[in-house]
TrEMBL record, chains A, B, C:
Pfam families: Hexapep (PF00132), Hexapep_2 (PF14602), LpxD (PF04613). This is UDP-3-O-acylglucosamine N-acyltransferase. It catalyses: a UDP-3-O-[(3R)-3-hydroxyacyl]-alpha-D-glucosamine + a (3R)-hydroxyacyl-[ACP] = a UDP-2-N,3-O-bis[(3R)-3-hydroxyacyl]-alpha-D-glucosamine + holo-[ACP] + H(+). The lineage of its organism: Bacteria, Pseudomonadati, Bacteroidota, Chitinophagia, Chitinophagales. InterPro entries: Hexapep, LpxD, Trimer_LpxA-like_sf, UDP_GlcNAc_AcTrfase_non-rep. The keyword Iron-sulfur does not apply. Its EC number is 2.3.1.191. Belongs to the transferase hexapeptide repeat family. LpxD subfamily. It is an enzyme of class 2 (transferase). Residues 318-345 form a coiled coil. It comes from the Bacteria. Pathway: Bacterial outer membrane biogenesis; LPS lipid A biosynthesis. NCBIfam families: lipid_A_lpxD, PRK00892.1.
Length: 347, 347, 347
């Protein structure tokens, strides 16, 4: 699709400087953009590129004063980055909306149903009683088990697997390779040292506006539900165990793991590769630093780091001293010798 | 499927109190259950729900004394949780057994063969000379490479990939997205700084009753076999490198990793996000705490923690002191000053 | 395929001792090999097996002196392991080359195109404008999004997902379940505590001779490209965030993670489960130990360990002292008491 600068200015409520008929068909960084591309200047560090860029249209701050004439068409807005992001979102939305229909071959059980403007890609599988809401896009090679319900405006990327009985809200995005609803890790030890599987008959609920990255795993509850609440965002390769609950708008970075039955509050931030043990609570707004190992509940608003994790500021101080440990040991040794000598002298 | 209380009582050898014709069709937690659901009361903490639950049938201990009359039908058994788990297992077994036949489109090589009561889902791929045992269920979108042999009563969940020449025993369960038999990470450094691939021509063997979680990776051996022995249980997102051996009934939690050629004994327990270096041995019954980094062999029965990991009890003591490091440093400084002063005074 | 010893000797430029017509059809370890298998003896530790092995042909060093007569046919070469590896590579190459054609059902968009000697497996998906080079093998259930370009001699294993607009060079291997080009983790915090997605419109570029293990995730850039440079090797379950760059011939072990916009130089080695924060640089030839947490840039050639990571040698010393912390604390306490006593005596 090709857009003239005039139309773009309309979308971002901007003012054109230069040729309103300049056209663009894709996006580029200001330092790399080619003719026919749209770019933006937000960071002053990149200012010099404004005068050399080959981009056809640049979104730029109203406040910016040109140092010399430019070749490219400018669109003036109050906040260049924000306007650019709005434009990108609009563009992606349009692209998604255009994608409709059912590609063949796909497998849709007779009892499955779906709404308007839905896309179902080739090799996708919809089990019995599956329900798909309006405008949701199911990419190729996705598996949706029996009785799964998916809301409106969702994007389920290629190869996602959703086990039976799970529920997905509206405006949910799930990236490739992610598994929703696999069995929780529950095995009862037997007298002979072997393990007997504890059946996992619960499900997973993803509420509205949840986004899950690629190759993440969210296990179904033993009984009841593993729940990811509204607006929570999960990165790639994360492990969410059975019966976990993640609160509204909490954010979890890549490769972190949350063990069984742990409840995570609202607005919690968990860093990459952090691990949280089972059966604890993380209070609203608490923060867990990357690679931390959290073994106890955390109060609302508190930050922790380290493995095992404790209060962020105290832990940083201990880490600083731990680097001087060989020196500290030497000082203790010197004290011991000095004192021994002193004792010999004085007694 | 709908079952009357009388039939359930028969399966769990329980005694009915109330209406033997009450029927249930699914399971629920006692605090959330709806009419037509079966639940149980094992934990006294949930006792109050017994009098308010909408569940139609409750499995409950023989010993429990009612505080007031209940609406629901009770089934009395010696151990309520155990009876409930038995029921769930039976139910899942029945559901699995009902799933048979070959869905279309699927790809089954002419030289592939399979036994009785097998299910092969749509978009599943069976390569040349593949053999599938009786009653095994191959879910949609599974890939089974050439010459792979899979035993009886296995469940291979959607999207699992098993590379050529691997072997899977009986009663093995593999969850979605898991990859069995990808190449081990072997590259020989070259004089120019580049790397030359070392061909990986071994395979992976999963013995009977192994269960593997979702999105786990088990690499094929360089030569010979990577082996997961009988009854071992692996969680999600685990990395098992080439030529590793995991002993009988060992248990590995999510996101742990085992490097090349390491041998893990029987009944070993490895915590989440733990890492084990290559070419070492973990003795039978040894334990590795979550997030530990094991760089040396561990004797049978020993427990370790930390990164690098060492004796569990010693490490916990060191961790406790490490939190007081800023204080310890301060105390050393005070000692130094005091001693310096004392030396000035006494000499 | 069956090869006589004479033909194998020709390939590795070796000299036959024994029956040149002995035939082999597969490979085995010297201690496990069966009749009809080819093996090698490189490690003197395995010498005894030479006299008991059932392998039909053994590749062995020119220098090795037999202690007694052997049953098997020997092929003498200067370096037995290297000759064996060459043979394996050749064998795998032949096997790959034989695999050509398009299996049905597959989905190939009308605007997609591919070269000579290409293999496209069943249930593979090629989007609009996809281009596949000569001799590249696309295994079953692979997804290739719109506008993706893949070079020659690549192997894309079953179930790999490559999102739209990504670029893959020549001789690239990607293992099962790996996701290339999923959205970077970018969300702008809103005043109400929720998060607004930052569109991710860049792509991923894998240069020539890159190999990526199974279930690894490489996110597309926000704008521009996430780049894995020539000859870099990535293991399984690795997270590469948006706008990261990995230099030529760098090697990353399993379960490591690299956060957004970090630049990793040439010939860098990153251990398993290590984590690297965003927006830093790792100099050429630097080394990161397993499980380290790197929070600052590293100079070329430097090695680090620990979480947070610092100089390798210093960190090892601190780790050694940290194990003696309870003892050190005790020594400080004794010093305090001794000094207190001394002060009482002398003052």
């Amino acid at each position: 699709m090709i857009f003239p600068a005039s139309q773009i200015a309309l979308i971002v409520s901007g003012k054109i400087e230069g040729d309103p008929n300049a056209t663009v068909g894709s996006f580029g960084k200001i330092e790399e953009a080619k003719e026919g591309q749209l770019s933006f200047l937000a960071n002053p560090k990149y200012e010099d590129y404004l005068y050399t860029t080959r981009a056809s249209v640049i979104i730029i701050s109203e406040a910016y004063e040109l140092k010399q004439p430019v070749q490219t068409t400018l669109i003036r807005v109050p906040d260049a980055y924000s306007a650019f992001a709005t434009l990108l979102s609009k563009y992606q939305e349009i692209m998604q909306q255009q994608m409709t229909g059912v590609q063949e071959p796909s497998y849709i059980a007779k009892t499955a149903s779906y709404g308007q403007q839905v896309f179902i890609g080739a090799f996708a599988y919809l089990g019995e009683n599956v329900k798909i809401g309006n405008n949701t896009k199911i990419y190729p090679q996705v598996y949706i088990g029996n009785n799964v319900v998916i809301g409106e405006n969702c994007i389920i990327h290629p190869g996602v697997k959703i086990y039976h009985d799970c529920q997905v809200g509206n405006s949910v995005t799930i990236h490739s390779g992610t598994v929703i609803g696999s069995d929780g890790f529950g095995f009862a030890p037997q007298p002979d040292g072997s393990f007997k599987k504890v059946p996992q008959i619960g499900n997973v609920i993803l509420e509205d506006q949840v986004e899950v990255g690629s190759n993440t795993t969210i296990d179904r509850a033993t009984i009841g539900s593993t729940i990811i609440r509204k607006g929570a965002k999960l990165d790639n390769l994360i492990q969410i165990a059975h019966n976990v609950e993640i609160g509204n708008s909490s954010v979890i970075a890549a490769q972190a793991g949350v063990s069984g039955s742990t409840k995570i509050g609202k607005g919690v931030m968990i860093g990459g590769q952090a691990g949280i043990v089972g059966h604890i609570q993380l209070g609203d707004g608490s923060k867990v630093n990357a690679q931390s190992g959290v073994s106890k509940s955390i109060d609302a608003g508190k930050a922790v780091t380290g493995s095992p994790a404790y209060d962020y500021t105290s832990a940083l101080r201990s880490q600083a001293v731990s680097r001087k440990l060989p020196d500290l040991e030497k000082r203790v040794k010197e004290l011991e010798q000095l004192l021994k000598q002193l004792l010999t002298e004085t007694r």
